[in-house]
Amino acid sequence: MRGGWAIKTVFIKSAAAYHDYPPPIKCEIALAGRSNAGKSSFLNALASSDIAKTSSMPGKTTLLNFFEVGESYRIVDMPGYGYSARSGDEQRTWRNLVEDYLEQRPILVGVLLIMDVRRDWGQDEIMLCKWLEQLNVPVALIATKIDKLTKNELAKAEQRVRKTSKLKNIFFTSSPKRVGMKAIEEFVYASWVKPNLEKPKSLMEKFD
Ligand code: GTP
Ligand code: MG
Question: What's the whole-model pTM score?
Answer without folding.
Answer: 0.95
